[in-house]
Amino acid sequence: MTRTLSSIDLAPILPLPLLAALAAVALLAVVPALIRRARGAWWRAAAFLLILGALANPRLVQQTRETRPDIALLAVDRSASTTVAGREAAITAARAALEARAGRLPDLELRTVTVEEGGNQGTRLFTAIERAMSDIPRARLAGIVALTDGQAHDVPRSFPNDAPLHLLMPGRAGEVDRRLRVIEAPGFGIVGRSVDLRLMVEDLGAANATAPVRLSIRRDGAAPRSESVVPGREHRITVPIERGGTSVIEITAEERPGEVSTVNNTAVVTVHGVRDRLRVLLVSGEPHAGERTWRRLLKADPNVDLVHFTILRPPEKDDLTPLNELALIAFPVRELFQQKLRDFDLIVFDRFSNRGILPPQYLRNIADYVRGGGALLLSVGPEFTGSSSLAITPLGQVLPARPVGGGQAMAETAFRAQVTETGLRHPVTEGLTGANATAVAQATWGRWYRHLRADARSGATVMNAPNGAPLLVLDRVGEGRVALLLSDQIWLWSRGHDGGGPQAELLRRIAHWLMREPELEEEDLTASIQGGRLTVTRRSLSDAAPPEFSVTAPDGTVTRQTPERASGGRAVVEVPATRAGVWSATDGTRTAFAAAEAGNPPEIADLRADPARIQPIVTSSGGAVRWLGDGSAVPDLRRVSAGRDASGPGWIGLVRREDHTVTGISALPLLPPWLALLLVLGVAVVAWRQEGR
Predict the structure, then answer these.
(1) SS3 at position 359
(2) How far apart are CA 598 and CA 167, in angstroms?
(3) Residue 518: left if φ>0, alpha if ψ -120 to 50, beta else—which one?
(4) What are the structural domains, with CATH classification, of the chain?
(5) Which residue, among 255, 280, 357, has the nearest Cα to 313 in the 3D structure?
(6) What is the DSSP string of 222-287?
(7) Which of 285, 306, 288 is nearest to 296 (CA)?
(8) In 3-state terms, what secondary structure has residue 117?
(9) Phi, psi for 452 (deg, rounded to 5)
(10) CA torsion sign, 137 to 139 to 140 to 145?
């Protein structure tokens, strides 16, 4: 818009100090004459005024201005806390109303900035406002209107207050919100022990909240248990860690009547169960070249307490030497296999033959130990084929294979161990490179020279000899597990013979599978959430098509998902997990749980609409706080002059800045030299004639 303004300006011919001195001289010359009322005194004064006026050079100045519209900024909060209690609809309606009203105001441009949800640092309202203000000249900023619930987490200590900041709040004053806050939650726990969770229930905005609150505690989808807590006081919850792996614990506080939302009434804690010190009993039979392989492997793990016995003096070698003259320690059969048997997490028999050392009752104890949840590993050689073989003792009932009869059990020929089709899917042997020859690579595992021919009766054969004889058999017996290695020459790999092999890795996997490490479960369903996506993985030794998965969201919504096959007997489903809480997935047999934490924890820490954080800045800027959820209409927009009140009943004001750009200027002298000369001479002559009479 173009406007023309006129004004009178002075462009002195002489410097102002000199002009002021001439004015003083003129006063000295005129004032005494005026006091005496001399003739022509007024004409003298007029002459001096004309002279001073001519020297001041007055001009009529005309400016052509291009006025620029003022700019108002509308900040719209779209963070997670504005999606509860109908706030999103209220903000949308208020935005539309303000944009329509601003469009009807002349010389006003409304710019809108949206504060989106993102990150984990809460609502960055003022960051968005300051970013938008960087493109607005401060001389044109008429004001800022923020549509927000007041839960801003970047409120600055100081904010420019040359333009009013108005706060329009969806909601009502005096809202109440109940939240469950986890103070401390350990990420790990020892299996067989308990962990303590520290938490607190808080009723924000409520006065004298002392009524007990019921907590519902659910672990891995099991039936919930209840506890009662007092709001505002720290409470401890004891959770036993019964197994290794991840346990998902969901804690929910009952809803408070009238509270804004129950989104923050639930907390999810993930505790990973780990074993403390693993106690392993290693019993070696007759000494052989690979005996120390097991000892080195188990001693290398700092979490293993190893008890190792080697049978150096079997009963048939008894020569009646008194025990007090022997340098050997008597084998504590009764203490190990009756009194303290269940104290061990794993029992390893390395080329052990029962030559009257273990009575049948103790062998039955070991078999019962396995059925009750124990772990047993046997590495056998020629001793497994004779009359002292463990296969023909009560322990044989839990072994997955028996040696063939007819004196053909022992095979002594060079061969390379191979991973079976089942072994390629089993986590114990999956991914062990160099096992089998492929189209692009040869088998690189070193050769062994002895193995036992056996009939596998149960379990999974994951390694075999080239003739199809089982070499490594893994089996589940009752609640326990058994591993049978039908060769005593795995120690050749540790020496690097013929290229060696993954001896340490294979034995580590076998031992950890026996002790139920979750990562090595061959029949399992797991779920995890990363980057806002739920990944469900089913692992199975079966080659059949995997079933559909049922995925249950925290709000109870159930969806059916078809998994995609992956390597190693896996089937995988990946779906978005945008809602915080416990997600569950089932394949019809097993169920897995995963916890999705709130993507922006500060955002849901307090769900009340509350202007307290921003109120000091609003007050200092001259703005106002208006509620939209108590039946009040969206306030009207008015233009106000700088320095006037920027708000009133039913309206909020935007300052009129009147910023402009000068596009043209012209100056017309009011007393040009020729006119000034004529006037001065004329007045001087009149003054002279008056004074000369």
Answers:
(1) coil
(2) 27
(3) alpha
(4) 2-66+662-692 (no CATH), 69-172+609-658 (3.40.50), 177-267 (2.60.40.10), 278-514 (3.40.50.880), 521-596 (2.60.40)
(5) 357
(6) ---EEEEE-TTSEEEEEEE--SSEEEEEEEEEPPPTT-S-SGGGEEEEEEEEE-SSEEEEEEE-S-
(7) 306
(8) coil
(9) -105, 140
(10) positive
Summarised one tens digit per residue, pLDDT across range 366-402 is 999 999 999 999 998 888 887 888 888 899 899 999 8
Helix/strand/coil percentages in the chain, nearest 5: 25, 35, 40
Query: Is residue 327 over pLDDT 50?
Result: no
Joined tokens for residue 395:
């322990």
DSSP class of residue 336 equals I
Alpha-carbon gap, residue 284 to 380, rounded angstroms = 10
Q: How far is residue 92 from each of residues 109, 116, 335, 600, measured CA to CA in Å?
A: 20, 14, 77, 22
Q: What are phi and psi of 617, to 5 degrees?
A: -70, -40
CB 491 within 8 A of CB 500: no
d(CA 452, CA 384): 8
Question: Hey, what's the torsion of the CAs at 540, 542, 547, 553, to 10 degrees?
Answer: 0
Give 616 or 62, the one with higher predicted confidence: 616
Alpha carbon distance 561, 564 (integer Å): 10
Tokens for 219, please give them.
Answer: 């672990």
Reported pTM:
0.71
**pLDDT value for 660:** 59
Q: Give the contacts of 264 (CB within 8 A, at least 6 positions apart).
A: 177, 178, 179, 180, 604, 605, 607
In the structure encoding, which two tokens stand for residue 189, read together?
Answer: 């726990």
* 3-state DSSP assignment of residue 344: coil
Q: What does each C-alpha distance from 190 to 9, 521, 527 come to in angstroms?
A: 90, 20, 22
Q: Are 518 and 545 in contact (CB under 8 A)?
A: no
Read off the amino acid at residue 128.
A
Give pLDDT, residue 369: 92
Tell me the residue length of the chain. 693
In whole angstroms, give the CA distance from residue 435 to residue 428.
13
- Per-residue confidence band for 322, with pLDDT thresholds at 50, 70 and 90: low
Burial-class residue 64 by CB neighbours within 10 Å (0-12, 13-18, 19+).
middle
d(CA 196, CA 237): 6
* CA terminus-to-terminus distance, the chain: 62
**What is the spatial distance between Cα 45 and Cα 680, in angstroms, rounded to a whole number?**
11
